[in-house]
Amino acid sequence: MTDSRHNHFRPRPGAVLPWLLWPILLVIGLSTYVLVAGSTGFCPTCSAILGAVSGKAIATGDSTTPVRDGSAQMDSAAGAFSTLTFHQVDGTPVQMSDYLGKPVLVEVWATWCAPCRRNRKVLFEAQDLLADHANLLALSVDQGGAPVVGAYLKKEHAGDSRWTELLATDPAFRSVIRPHDQRPTIPKLIYISAGGDVIDIEYGEVDPSWIVNRLKAMAPSESSGG
Length: 226
Known about the structure:
Number of domains: 2
Distance between the termini: 112 Å
Largest sheet: 6 strands, mixed
Strand order of the largest sheet: 2-10-9-5-6-7
Helix content: 25-40%
Structural class: alpha/beta
Oligomer: single chain
């Protein structure tokens, strides 16, 4: 007589494999979600994870009041922004020192970044108001460079613009803002003083009235000029 006591506990051939696949599929699914949601800005936490892993700017769709990084002064690189040189889409070099004398507002963005595109719409609608208080620079971090950015600008911003469109071609740019840059994400706004100091960096969706108040507070004292 055959002893079948242990046959009840013997798995059928191939029955174990599907159970082993579940953890693998779960990891793949979570990784895919983090990659997609983080790169599009749908999930700010995912964006932060991607930024920390890759060291590159990742889109964030943070819709809260603009977040300040908490740093008020740059002690080690005062005026360092004025030493940078970026390029326009046509290859023309642009020295940042030419834009000093009044505060400078720098929008850091990319064509693939959905939150950036939403911010740009708001910023362009408020450009006349903002330009009364600062020189306006839009700095693209697209890896595709001039061809990608040029095609986007031709399609989306063919009209008059108060913004100077630039490519982040100066390798020193990241080191200049690093003491203030607490998030490797975009979109971000960089506030530059009239003397070329990085004053603050804000992240997330923009509020023109908030920005104007910040720029007014940064304006050189009128009494110093007279």
